[in-house]
Each structure stands twice: as structure tokens, then as C-alpha cells.
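Hello Y.,

Per our agreement to keep a running log of every chain we model this quarter, I'm adding this entry. I've kept the format consistent with earlier entries: sequence first, then predicted structure.
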Amino acid sequence: MAQVSTVTSQAGAVISHDVAMRFLFVGDSMTIGRSGDFTWRYRMWQHLEATLGDGGYAITGPRTALYDTEANAPLSHAYGDASFPAPARRHLAGWGEGWLHMAPVVADAVASARADVLLVSLGLIDLGFYTDSTQTAANARAFITAARAANPRIRLVLLPVIPNIRAESDAPFAAECDRFNTLLAKAVADLDAPASPVLLASHPTGYDIHTDTYDGTHPGPTGEHKLAGAFADAMHQAWGVGGPYAGALATA
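Predicted structure for the entry above:
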């Protein structure tokens, strides 16, 4: 499989985007965010606004809320920027949800949202609580198959697992994260296709769990920018979508 700069993709697979592209964010607690967060979804919305412009894209999905830690449920709408437009808040992300949970629901979400592009950050919660690297990789493959059943021309960008603070003291967990990332790269190489391309984004440049997260797992403002940048740069480098990520790596 050819390498396109920092992403794995079909060589030369530049994608025409004359028609507005519909993006669906899929993820776990790092993606849904908690009350008061800006979220990397917000940073990506800013990037899409700057590069694709009004009418050039849409953000879609069945959910809009943040996770409310006091209620222990996704009930909050208190985003860090209250002016974050309601349509741009859409997503398919859940606190404590992984590939295991998203594989059975992604087909319905893609069909109902009419999604064209999935930006996916999953796996850490699976490896931490639910499944080993082999089963997690199998669930990732099932997710891609299900998404394609709903839209045979779906495009996907997958982010490798970023090991969290647990990996520093739990060597078997760290090894499972590394092994899963190897298996995820193999899945991308196996499943990438011209009609439905799959990208493996690079690990976010310079990402440091001690400075880019607020608890060793969940991104703070700089981490949000770096996560959004990993997705944005993968799409730009491989598909010619949007432009290089130019979000300021500064606290908000």
C-alpha cells in the first residue's frame, strides 16, 4: 500500500468535492467531550469553515450533547464556545463507547445522516475495559463493513490509539495499544479501496499526554487542536480536501 506523506491511502486518490461533503465524527470520551469543553470537533468545524467555506460541507450525526459528569449521562450542551452552531455540534460519540459499541450502530447512523466521510477516533476504551487487541481490530473491520453497507462510497479516516497515562505503569496495556495500532494499519491496508478509501492518520504531531490532556487521557485545548490537525492533514495530503491545518496551538 502506497504511503502518502504521513497517511496510508490509495495513491493519488484525490477526491472531488464539488458537492458539499457530509462529515460524521465518531468516537469515545475524547470525541464527545464533557461539559465546558471546546472539543476537537469544534476545532475541526473551524478548520472546515476556513477551508471549505459556507455551503462546502456539512457536519452530521444523531447526537449533539456533551457528557455531563455530574449526571453521568450525555445531557450537557455547555460547550466552551456557546456560539458553536447547533448543526455543527452533531456527532456519533459516547463516553465509554468504543468499536464494540459503534460497529452495530454505524450503518443506521450513516444512512440517516447521509454521511460521506467518517472521522473516527476509537479503540482506547475497548482496550482498557472491553476487548483485547485482536478482537478490537476485528470490531474495527466490522465497523467499516457496516458503514459500507449503508454507503458503499463512504470515506473513512481512522486515528490510531493514543496510549493514555495508564500505559506508563501498565506494560501489558501499553503493549496491547501498540499491537492494536499495528493491526489497525493492517486493516486499513486490506480494506482501502478506490470506491471507499480508508486513511490511517498519523499520530498527532508532538502530542504529549502530560501537556495536551487535562487528566492523562482527555484532550485540553492544545490536544484538541492536534487531534483536529491529524484528521485535517490526512484528508488534505491524501485526498486534496480542505487545506493544511492552521489552527492556533494555544489555550482557548
